[in-house]
Amino acid sequence: MRLDASDIREMNLLKYYRLIRKWACKTYNIKDADLELLIYLDCKGKFTRNDFIDGVYTYSWDKNRWERLRRDGWIEAWRHRNRTTIKYSIFKTSFKCSQVISRIYRIMLSEEDLPISDRNIFYKNKSYTDKVYNKAIDDMLKDKDR
After folding, report:
1. Does residue 13 have a pLDDT over 90?
2. How would DSSP label each residue in 16-36?
3. pTM value?
4. Is the pLDDT of residue 121 over 80?
5. How many angstroms separate the CA atoms of 24 and 38, rounded?
6. How far is CA 136 from CA 33, 126, 142, in A?
7. Which of 26, 33, 39, 108 sits most deeply, having the most CB atoms within 10 A of its CB?
């Protein structure tokens, strides 16, 4: 079965995308552009460093992005090069990354709710922005057409 634009509109799939993305970025301490790039790479499955470079063209320049994502455990090597028969390494998104992206999809499809416990980073109410996001999360959870 193929989806078209009206199906996605009826599902309200992107209605709360910004709020969910902001929640994920703040909860998992990752930048917006990095999260969207990881979603792109997760869709590719296995990728090379050149695939990563091709995916980065539409994002703001960040020289340290590759090393930061590898160091923080978002990207891992699937196969290392050996300089004789395998000329380049192949990478994939880590299990942690796949779980975060799956959770984002479940929240977007209303299979799971955003957490509203005291452990949620937004519910610490340190700034005005946190209070605004709390209100938005409460409104999202009350929305019947989600």
Report:
1. no
2. THHHHHHHHHHHTT--HHHHH
3. 0.84
4. no
5. 12
6. 22, 16, 10
7. 108
**Residue spans of alpha helices (H) in 28-88:** 32-44, 49-56, 65-71
Does residue 62 have a pLDDT over 80? yes
Sheet containing strand 75-79, edge to edge, reads 46-47, 90-93, 75-79
Q: Are 98 and 73 in contact (CB under 8 A)?
A: no
Q: How far is CA 21 from CA 15, 47, 132, in A?
A: 12, 23, 15
DSSP code per residue over 93-134: E-HHHHHHHHHHHHHHTTSSPPP-STTSGGGG--SHHHHHHH
Q: Examine the pLDDT at 4 and tell me if it is beyond 90.
A: no
